[in-house]
Automatic annotation (TrEMBL):
Domain Methionyl/Valyl/Leucyl/Isoleucyl-tRNA synthetase anticodon-binding positions: 704-827
Methionyl/Leucyl tRNA synthetase domain span: 37-182
Name of the molecule in the record: leucine--tRNA ligase
Domain Aminoacyl-tRNA synthetase class Ia residues, every copy: 475-667
Region (Disordered) location: 172-217
Xref: Pfam families: Anticodon_1, tRNA-synt_1, tRNA-synt_1_2, tRNA-synt_1g
Family according to the record: Belongs to the class-I aminoacyl-tRNA synthetase family.
Gene3D superfamilies: Class I aminoacyl-tRNA synthetases (RS) (3.30.2320.20), HUPs (3.40.50.620), Isoleucyl-tRNA Synthetase, Domain 1 (1.10.730.10), leucyl-tRNA synthetase (1.10.10.720), Valyl/Leucyl/Isoleucyl-tRNA synthetase, editing domain (3.90.740.10)
EC number: 6.1.1.4
Keywords: Aminoacyl-tRNA synthetase, ATP-binding, Ligase, Nucleotide-binding, Protein biosynthesis
């Protein structure tokens, strides 16, 4: 037995034993296991520090629960479809499949090197047909449930490659906050964008939307968007695309957030903002006439949505989006309108300014009867509210900008409440809108003049037929079509006679054909794939060549882990009823919106289809913070990645867990890493010396009791910290116990049973975070059995009384320190021993160390005087 801790060798050995004994495999008969899940990785290269932190957290918690006696489900898989693999295939002489499989092999090896305790018998890989066939099957079930739509959407188009491009394939701009990019986003490339998006949203929705819009108008000039392959400027095209109608669940997804008590508030707030529930009103404006060709001369109407219906008195125009029915109708008779609509369609969603075109139509203000000009304007978004606004330049920033650009009147109808009811003299409505609350100032409307804005806002819907309470959501339907190869084929056939026909269940999976290099979407090039027969009429038909967004794969993968080999259903419905929810889900906060919203949506949809008996998938969510290096996020693109190999797996995970609370960002410092390394060396040396060299004694002494009590207290404290995911505090407690044990042994021959228990406790408490070391220590001390299968230690006593006493003593320590200082114990080491909180043992240790009688009595006296008498 060497006293040096050879971490590489120790790791390898225990990993071998764990695998040999299948210790992490969960029996299918397990009753209600604890489900601990880390977000599975994209197979886009190698693991980075974020992954390792993520999985160190789930692994520590899974191991802790296992020692607590739970059956634990702790699986791992691969989010294997997606753009990076396809890009890699174009860049290298490879194909997405081989590249992905190579990544998986490498990443799996990295995970195994880290010693994470996964049930590898449940491994899933989303790019394999036995997984993605269930994407197709679920697509069909959602379709039958009315949750799938086929609709025109505007996409990026490269005229040279003659292909549609995902936003991430358009260069010169990152996938950003715009609606379109959020939908068409390609996970890997847009993760950064999502992250910043997420935090912005968290901070202040209204402000960030404003910023977004002004940013958009700044960027309106010039088209710097080019194709990633041929650098041709990219245009826009309207194509029929598949959507999941997640908006059907907008209200429920919003409301449900209130019940997710164990989700971080930040994530819930981000989701609330993303869903963007807004209460307001729908106001109907009559419109006349439609055109001067006499057509549509009858009065028609436009509904607008407003969060501030009380400002209707100040509306000076109405504007509709370029995609609005009225815009299309007006375009037919008006070339200027038609031209404008066409240019807006050509440009990207981030190129919107405050341009627009006036039409011949007039809208009638339902409250004042005033006739207002009707504009078609790019800043009015198609799919927000009703796609139409009443323009109130005096009280809305965007309307103000539009009015300034088009010379429209700015009519104030609302004044802030000044102390003496005098309008604020600083209010200059020419330069900015007043968007706050206040009192209406509309002398020609005596019924409302002088009333508070909030009051009028509530009254109007009750008092006018043209105004109704309404709620809108910012959430858009989920566009799942991707015009690219490396994804799940959408199981649809297009037939000239029958329309789009779903591929029958018995013909699933629609397998991805072999990869071919081409300028466009490889699936378009495969005649044998594309050309097919209609399942309904048997005539010639064309297979859908779009594939699914990879976020579909990850929306239900947590269910596949329950029964990964099932071949007649995506998951075992009974087992799902028993094993769900995911008890703890850990992942990066870049997924706060899309992924975490999609799994909530899927869970609800599956419940409505009758496959699940619950509507929320995850009980507790841990949103892990970022590992920083020199103040920056540690990432391969920044070239500041420290790989775990440099320090050994165990040191890396122990450091990652002990550095900070899982949800906190922290700085990677060589010093602290060294600290984690040293702790292992120290503990290892203590155990080695104990089992090989130490002379122990059998008779008990006073300070043994103190040590025993401290062991119990540490067990209780560490248990509590593990329960709350405060691994960093657990590590501190463990470190303290190790220090105490070392001191104990330095000053006296250790009491055999007590010291052994102390060391065994260290091994057990450390095992969730440093499992290899845990096994090694356990094995040295006991000779058999695995700590991973051991019971979590229990305190021998009720530690609450002891803790109370300890706290009391701690408060007296400062007094003791003074007295001891006066007593001039010259050896600083000794002084420290006396003044530390564990004074009782240390005083005894001083005595036992054969200190002079004189000093011992000084210390005794100091203690007697300092500790209140009523304590006894
Ligand atoms: C008139 C009004 C007056 C509005 C006022 C606000 C203040 P925010 O402002 O972000 O909370 N809106 C409605 N549909 C829209 C569309 N399709 N495209 C662009 N803007 C649209 O969002 C609510 C406001 O956004 C709505 O309330 C509407 O302007 C505008 F003093 O109506 B408001
Ligand atoms: Zn047909």
């Amino acid at each position: 037995m060497t006293s040096h801790y050879d971490h590489a060798q120790v790791q390898e050995f225990w990993q071998y034993v764990w695998e040999r004994d299948d210790v992490y495999e969960l029996d299918d008969d397990a009753v209600d296991p604890t489900y601990v899940l880390g977000m599975f990785p994209y197979t886009s290269g190698e693991l980075h520090m974020g992954h390792i932190r993520n999985y160190a957290i789930t692994d520590a918690y899974a191991r802790y629960r296992r020692m607590q006696g739970d059956d634990v489900l702790h699986p791992m898989g691969w989010d294997a479809f997606g753009l990076p693999a396809e890009n890699a295939a174009y860049e290298r002489a490879s194909d997405p499949e081989s590249w992905t499989q190579a990544c998986i092999r490498r990443m799996r090896e990295e995970l195994e090197t880290m010693g994470f305790g996964y049930d590898w018998s449940r491994e899933i890989t989303t790019c394999e047909p036995d997984y993605y066939r269930w994407n197709q099957w679920l697509f069909k079930r959602l379709y039958e449930e009315g949750l799938v739509e086929y609709e025109a959407a505007t996409v990026n188009w490269c005229p040279d490659c003659e292909t549609v491009l995902a936003d991430a394939q358009v260069e010169g701009r990152e996938a950003e906050r715009s609606e379109a990019s959020e939908r068409a986003s390609d996970e890997a490339a847009s993760r950064e964008a999502e992250r910043s998006e997420a935090s912005e949203r968290a901070s202040d929705e209204a402000a960030s939307r404003e910023a977004e819009r002004s940013e958009a108008s700044e960027r309106a000039s010039g088209n710097d968007r080019v194709c990633w392959r041929c650098e041709t400027p990219v245009g826009r095209r309207e194509l029929d695309q598949w959507f999941f109608t997640i908006t059907d669940y907008a209200e429920e997804l919003y409301e449900g957030l209130d019940d997710l008590a164990e989700w971080p508030d930040g994530v819930r707030e981000i989701q609330r903002n993303w869903i963007g529930r807004q209460e307001g009103a729908r106001l109907t404006f009559d419109v006349e006439p439609i055109g001067d060709d006499g057509r549509g001369n009858g009065t028609t109407a436009v509904d607008v949505f407003s969060t501030r219906p009380e400002t209707v008195f100040g509306a000076t125009y109405v504007a509709v989006s370029p995609g609005h029915d009225l815009a299309r109708e007006l375009a037919e008779a008006d070339d200027a309108v038609a031209d404008y609509v066409a240019t807006v369609r050509e440009r990207g969603p981030d190129e919107v300014g405050f341009d627009g075109v006036e039409t011949d139509a007039r809208a009638v203000n339902p409250l004042t009867g005033e006739e207002l000009p009707v504009y078609v304007a790019g800043y009015v978004l198609d799919d927000v509210g009703t796609g139409a606004v009443m323009g109130v330049p005096a009280h809305n920033d965007r309307d103000h900008a539009f009015a300034r650009e088009h010379g429209l009147p700015i009519e104030s109808v609302l004044v802030p409440e000044a102390a003496d009811d005098v309008p604020d003299p600083d209010l200059d409505l020419e330069s900015a809108a007043y968007t706050g609350e206040g009192r209406l100032s509309i002398p020609d409307q005596p019924a409302y003049d002088g009333l508070e804005s909030a009051t009028v806002r509530e009254q109007l819907p009750d008092e006018h037929d043209a105004i109704e309470d309404d709620v809108t959501y910012r959430l858009r339907d989920w566009l799942i079509s991707r015009q690219r190869y490396w994804g799940t084929p959408i199981p649809v056939v297009h037939c000239d006679d029958c329309g789009h026909v779903l591929v029958p269940d018995e013909d699933l999976p629609v397998e991805l054909p072999e990869f071919v290099r081409t300028t466009g979407n490889p699936l378009e090039e495969h005649d044998t794939f594309r050309e097919t027969t209609c399942p309904e009429c048997g005539g010639p038909a064309r297979r859908e060549t779009d594939t699914m967004d990879t976020f579909v794969d990850s929306s239900w993968y947590f269910l596949r882990f329950l029964s990964p080999d099932l071949d007649d259903a995506p998951f075992d419905v009974d087992r799902a009823a028993e094993w769900l929810p995911v008890d703890v889900y850990v992942g990066g906060d870049e997924h706060a919106v899309l992924h975490l919203l999609y799994i909530r949506f899927f869970t609800r949809a599956l419940a409505d289809i009758g496959l699940l008996d619950r509507r929320e998938p995850v009980e507790k969510l841990v949103s892990q913070g970022t590992v920083l290096y020199d103040g920056e996020k540690m990432s391969s693109s920044k070239g500041n990645v420290v790989t775990p190999q440099e320090y050994g797996a165990e040191t890396t995970r122990l450091f990652l867990l002990s550095a900070a609370h899982p949800e906190q960002d922290f700085e990677w410092t060589a010093n602290d890493v060294r600290g984690a390394y040293d702790l292992q060396q120290t503990v290892h040396r203590m155990v080695t010396e104990f089992v090989t060299e130490d002379e122990t004694r059998v008779e008990r002494r006073d300070h043994d009791d103190y040590l025993a009590a401290e062991i119990d207290r540490t067990i209780a404290a560490v248990t509590d910290e593990y329960e709350r995911f405060r691994f960093h505090r657990a590590a501190t407690e463990i470190r303290e116990l190790a220090r105490l044990l070392r001191r104990y042994r330095e000053f006296d021959r250790p009491h055999e049973a007590t010291y052994r228990r102390g060391l065994l406790t260290l091994a057990a408490l450390l095992a969730p975070m440093a499992p290899h070391l845990g096994e090694e220590l356990w094995n040295k001390l006991r000779g058999d059995g695995l700590v991973v299968e051991a019971d979590w230690p229990d305190p021998d006593r009720d530690v609450t009384a002891y803790e109370r006493e300890r706290r009391l003593i701690e408060t007296t320590v400062d007094d003791v320190r003074d007295i001891v200082d006066v007593a001039a114990i010259d050896d600083p080491e000794r002084i420290e021993l006396v003044v530390a909180p564990d004074w009782k043992y240390r005083v005894a240790a001083l005595r036992a160390a054969d200190e002079s009688e004189e000093r011992a009595s000084i210390v005794d006296r100091a203690v007697d005087e300092a500790v209140p008498v009523d304590r006894e």
